[in-house]
Amino acid sequence: MSHHNQHDDPRTMSEHQTEQEHVAAGAAAVEEAPGGAADPSFFRRKAPDGGAAAGHDGPAGAGAREGDAEGVMQAAAARIQELETALDEMRDRWMRAEAETQNIRQRARREADDARQFAVQKFARDVVEGAENLRRGLSSLPPPGVDDPPMLTKLREGFESVERSFLGLLERNGITATDPTGAVFDANLHQAMAEQPSAEHPPGTVIQAWTPAWTLNGRLLKPAMVVVSRAAPQAEAAPAPGQPGVEALDRTV
After folding, report:
1. Which of 132, 209, 213, 237 maximizes the CB count within 10 A of its CB?
2. What gap in Å lies between CA 148 and CA 63, rounded to an integer?
3. pLDDT number for residue 57
4. pLDDT at position 6, please?
5. Which range has the worst mean pLDDT, 58-62, 166-170, 200-204, 244-248?
6. Measured between alpha carbons, how far is 204 from 185 in angstroms, rounded to an integer?
7. Per-position b or e across 7-33, b if 16+ CB within 10 A of its CB
């Protein structure tokens, strides 16, 4: 029967011999083991896929891997915090630079506007001198009367027409004149040339303007020369009724 099985087995003689050699080597290894086949550590050491060894070192290896992962996460968090801090600093610097740029742009625009509006300031100051001289010439003429010669009337009307045209020309270019008569004295707009006691006006009131206040586009060009009122001296107080006067006191002495 064994002869029949050998012929039925498809494996060759060399394969049978190799298998027998492996079995013999395994048996010899078991016998050479310190604890023999009963020692389970032998199989753990000889596990071909490393599974037994992994099971022996599993908790320590897992702890090491968890420690490594935690260290990586901490390093990543620290790096993220560092980058966020740097980003905040760069954003703050950018905002400050943008604000400074905006201020410089606005200042440059304001200076350009001022240069355009007030570049003729000196020339305008000289021009208003001519307007004031024209007004002085008109004021030197005698006041209008019914018996005025026709020549004087025409001369006065001609000067007044020239003055109106001249003042209109100045106003179209931003130069205006303001009569401060009756206004409260303002040191920013008026130049006090004299003081005059007045019982009709409160102290510090402009009661006479020698020249108007001139402005160029809202900026003072030339202050008005004015006369300012001050308090009138108090009259000597009369004795109250029933009280003796000075003469009566003298008589009683």
Report:
1. 213
2. 123
3. 52
4. 46
5. 244-248
6. 6
7. eeeeeeeeeeeeeeeeeeeeeeebeee
The predicted-structure confidence for 154-205, as pLDDT tens digits, reads as follows 988 998 999 999 999 999 999 999 999 999 999 999 999 999 998 888 999 9
Dihedral sign, CA of 202, 139, 153, 150?
positive
Q: Is the pLDDT of residue 43 over 60?
A: no
Q: Is 124 exposed, middle or buried (0-12, 13-18, 19+ CB in 10 A)?
A: buried
β-strand pairing of 175-178 with 213-216:
antiparallel
| Rounded-to-5 percentages of helix, strand, coil across the chain | 60, 15, 25
CA distances (Å), origin 226, targets 124, 152, 174, 194, 212: 21, 30, 23, 7, 9
CB within 8 Å of 210: residues ≥ 6 apart: 193, 224, 225, 226, 227
Global pTM reads 0.51
Q: What is the pLDDT of residue 232?
A: 81
Domains of the chain: 121-230 (2.30.22.10)
Q: Which of 128, 215, 123 is nearest to 166 (CA)?
A: 128
What are the backbone dihedrals phi and psi of residue 237, each rounded to the nearest 5 degrees, phi first? -70, 130
Type of residue found at 45: R
Structure tokens at 245: 């006067």
Q: Quick one: which H or E segment has residue 62?
A: helix 51-118
Which has the higher per-residue pLDDT, 217 or 29? 217
